[in-house]
């Protein structure tokens, strides 16, 4: 047997004897972890009037702007 002692069933809630001070006691809400799931954002939030510089893609094969290595027309096909 898995347990050494007996496990008694809990009686219905109507038959419980609860003291008045326990009933009137205010219980604070349990702590809930408010941390967000997923990867943290390390960049700062930009202001409403603040712009950020735009960059064009630069190919690492031909060093030309406007496309990436995967779509380079000068890339040798395997």
TrEMBL record:
Superkingdom of the source species: Eukaryota
List the InterPro entries hit by this protein, alphabetically: Znf_CCHC_sf
The Swiss-Prot or TrEMBL record annotates one GO molecular function as: nucleic acid binding
Q: What is this protein called?
A: Uncharacterized protein
């Amino acid at each position: 047997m898995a347990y050494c002692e007996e496990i008694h069933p809990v009686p219905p809630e109507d038959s419980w004897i609860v003291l008045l001070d326990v009933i009137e006691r205010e219980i604070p809400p349990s702590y809930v972890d408010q941390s967000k799931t997923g990867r943290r954002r390390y960049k700062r939030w930009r202001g409403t009037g603040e712009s950020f510089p735009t960059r064009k893609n630069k190919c690492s094969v031909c060093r030309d702007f406007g496309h990436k290595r995967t779509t380079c027309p000068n890339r040798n096909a395997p």
